[in-house]
Amino acid sequence: MAGGVHTAPERGRKIGADVVQIFSKQNTRWMGKALEEEDARALREESDRTGVRVAAIHCAYLINLGSTNETVRTRSLYALEDEASRAAILGVPYLVMHPGSCGDDPVKEGISRIASAIRSFGKFPKGVTLLLENTAGQGNSIGRTMRQLRELLDGAGDPAEHLGRFQCLLLQRIEVIPVHLLLVHLGIKQRGDEHGSVLFIQA
Q1: What are the helix (H) ranges across 35-105?
Q2: Which of 52, 63, 104, 178 could bridge 76 with an S-S bond, Cβ 3.0-4.6 Å?
Q3: Model pTM?
């Protein structure tokens, strides 16, 4: 984030937000500059000053646990580990990730690869919860329906065993499929940009 992550609360205050979602590094890079305790302290102070809370960190867009390319999946796991560590350092409770894309393979194979990767990840740092964001459905992206996300959650296995806490983020579509809604990110289309956002945390 330009200027440092501690600038997020003030930016949120200027638009009347109570909570914000941020990137903790450039969203098109696998790894980011290491965060220090000073970064976390500055973020806490700005959050206290403005009354604006950083509710979630969005993972880099490069992460694709559903890729047909094993090298990409491996790099994605390392990048997810880095993102989780950054969230823990900053004291941000939620980490939002796009499930991924299956390329030309059947969706079920992509779901299987993502679930397998999540199982192999192990537990997230204490206080950090992974949220899976559903997608608008471009290309072969996975997570375009709640049913796909439910299959992914089922395939990932026991959340208590693998992730500590593992939830699901609903972005745009609602279906009668049992998932745990924890955070809503509403896209606001402005000047061709569909990623203007408003965040709500479930009470």
Answers
A1: 37-50, 70-90
A2: 63
A3: 0.80
The Cα 98–Cα 180 span in angstroms is 16
Q: How many structural domains compose the chain?
A: 1
172, 134 Cβ separation under 8 angstroms? yes
Strand partners, 170: 184
Query: Closest Cα partner for 35 from 92, 77, 75, 73?
Result: 92
**Residue 160 falls inside a structural domain:** yes
Cβ atoms within 10 Å of 147's Cβ, excluding its own: 12
Domain with 110, as residue range(s), is 1-6+19-25+76-203
Report the share of the chain in percent with pLDDT over 90.
Answer: 44
Helix or strand (DSSP H, E) at 184: strand 181-190
Indicate which CATH number applies to the domain containing 113.
3.20.20.150
pLDDT tens for residues 59-81? 999 999 999 999 999 999 999 99
Asked, for residue 63, whether it belongs to a domain, the answer is no
CB 72 within 8 A of CB 83: no
48: in domain: no
The answer to whether position 161 is within a domain reads: yes
Ranges of the chain with pLDDT below 50:
159-178, 191-203
Alpha helices in 91-164 (DSSP H): 107-121, 146-156, 159-162
Token reading at 16: 């009347």
